[in-house]
Amino acid sequence: MSVYVGVDVHRKRSQIAVIGQDGEVQVNRNVPNGVKTVLGVIGDLPIGAPVAFEAAYGWGWLVELLEDYGYDPHLVHPLQCKAIASARLKNDKVDAATIGQLLRADLLPEAWIAPLEVRQQRALLRHRFQLVRLRTLLRNRIHAVLADHGHDRAGGICTSPGRSWLADLPLPDASRHVVDDLLQVIDALQPIIDTLDRQLAAQSRGDPRSIALCALPGVGTLTALMIVAEVGDISRFPSARKLAAWAGLTPTVRNSDRTVRHGHISKQGSPWLRWIMCEAAQTAKRHPMFAPGYQEMAHRRGKKIATIAIARKLLTRAYHVLREVHEQQAPPHRTTATKAAAGTAPHPGRARISA
């Protein structure tokens, strides 16, 4: 008998509902997060049983657990699961059962589960960019302290001349203490960022996708790695328009009868991909490939909207580059006649499994 499992994942505990093939709830239990506790509920279920859960905070451990023990994980798209969000009665027990019922009825709005190596690559790149943001925050704090005393410098304060100028600057004791502490933290962050940059540069040299993306205007090594990591498997997007919509770079549309209203971009999907494309667009908009279109749109709609439009066009070009590399790396298609000639014809009773 087939069973379906719905899990409402939380930070410390999870609600697990087991649904039978007839739709009856067999088990609905709240357990602490952990291998033993989760397996205590679903450990006796058949191997390959489907398990669905929302993309909530800290769901990676559950995917690894399910894959290690032979279950079939399904990630629920939280924004599209209207049956849970609009329910009149909403609690963990009801949510877990609803997820299981949607899985049983094949009505589950699923999200893509990135492989472990892709998730690790994303984590490394996001960590690097967050450290750079922290360093920028500390530098801005130093500028704020200096501005409070009427001091400013056109050049950077973290260069060798800037450090000398800062050391000779007359500041009150408390302000001097704040500036010295901030500089120490900046100096401590720099070796970590440099090590990450070397590690990521080495990874980029061995990835043909990153090498191909670096030919695009405004795309450097780190930008290319971020695009590759955030997009993942490019074959899951049938068109560049779908990728742009997933990145949240397409405008929202409200259509009723003959009235069509276009709003701001949706800002759904990966915020990191949307951010890195907008950063790359700041350079790409000055390239001859995009400059005429940017100037024309900036005149009509403003610089911000024009920059987002360039980010969307740049992502479209990145899509075609990734598709081309993917098709070059894909193994050549072999027909049944070719397999038979090679002595590897498929057995007529053997099911064909697609990766």
TrEMBL record:
Task: Please give one Gene Ontology molecular function term for this protein.
Answer: transposase activity
Specify the Transposase IS116/IS110/IS902 C-terminal domain's residue ranges: 213-287
Q: Where is the composition biased (Low complexity)?
A: 335-345
Stretch list, region Disordered: 326-355
- Please list the residue ranges annotated as the Transposase IS110-like N-terminal domain: 5-147
Q: Which Pfam families match?
A: DEDD_Tnp_IS110, Transposase_20
| Top-level taxon in the UniProt lineage | Bacteria
Q: Which GO terms describe its biological process?
A: DNA transposition
UniProt xrefs under PANTHER family? TRANSPOSASE (PTHR33055:SF13), TRANSPOSASE FOR INSERTION SEQUENCE ELEMENT IS1111A (PTHR33055)
- Write down what this protein is called: Transposase
What organism does this protein naturally occur in? Streptomyces yunnanensis
- Classification lineage: Bacteria, Bacillati, Actinomycetota, Actinomycetes, Kitasatosporales
